[in-house]
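Input/output pair, single chain:
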Amino acid sequence: RKPAKAAKPAKAAKPAKAAKPAKVRPALLNPGEPGYAERWAAFLEARQENQQKFVDLVEREGRVRMAAAAEVLSIAGKALGGVVGSLTRWANEGGLAVPFEAGLDAGERIWIWKNA
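Output:
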């Protein structure tokens, strides 16, 4: 028989990392507020073509289903989610609310223009 191994010494606990302070973002500028139209136009002009087409489509139609938007933009629904997600994220990073709302209609994603 082999002799029993000696117990390993306990490892010292790692010190806890300090929590990062919460990122405080200023309130978003919303459609209809002073300066919004100019800032939104400048923001949208700097976006990718498919993002611009999506915004134009929702503004023109007032209410758009995911399948229709994907067809008009000639992209898959999953890719459309990336287009809209990126657009929303960067608008929010720039202090702007997007001028459309997302929702569901009979289980399908839709977008509605806020001024429609």
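The two ends are 84 Å apart (CA to CA). Residues 88 and 98 are 6 Å apart (CA to CA).
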